[in-house]
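Exercise: predict the fold of this chain.
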Amino acid sequence: MAGEELTDPTRALSGPRPHAPRRVGHKGAAHLAPGNTLAAFDAALDAGVDMIEFDVLPERPDGSGRLLLAHDYQALRAAERPLALEEALAHLAGERFSQVELDVDLKLPGYATRVVHALRTAGLVGRTLVSGTYAEDLDLVRAAEPALRVGWSVPRARRDYTASPLTAVPAWAALSGYRALLPGRARAALRSGRFDAIMAHWRVVSGGLLRAVRDGGGELYVWTVDDAALVRRLSAMGVDGIITNDPRLFAT
């Protein structure tokens, strides 16, 4: 669990009863269909999501080539026919998806303005949030299209180091320090207008972070939550969005 404050979320904040969080499908709905595909987007819509998250990578690591939907280059190589960003946006711009928001996650630096151009061409700026771990690229998004919302994704890590016995102890120590510093950093970044949202891994979520995000005037989205009990706890805590591979968990 992400700490004592998360395990007792009802004590994290006082005030009115929290609103229902946005139901966000990770890679569309990656437990219902292959992630980052049109089939996953359709499955997410059928499951009643409010927002669809998907990942964008350039064809080559230097930022050149087509923009494709994939979480990493291993997934890109494994895909039989990677989905081009323009094809994905054309599908999501259809009438069926008109009430669904989008979270476009930039996995690497170097192609942010190309994504902005694609969103503008597809007419999807008004219902899209662009997220990523590289703050400087989010600054480029903000400068290129102020109407786009931007979300800072934290922490930046290639894998969950707490899951391995070899790295768990130092990883938990580092995570504790990070969790202590994150609320102040998030509050400052939101108040300055640099970001509109914080996209936080569930292990770094705390009542203190949620208070800081609210103080900063932003939103808090939590990733990636594939446990029904944790979905309920985060919902009771009052976070603004929960990102999951299986949107059916919101009905449990």
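Check your answer against the key: The longest strand covers residues 51-58.
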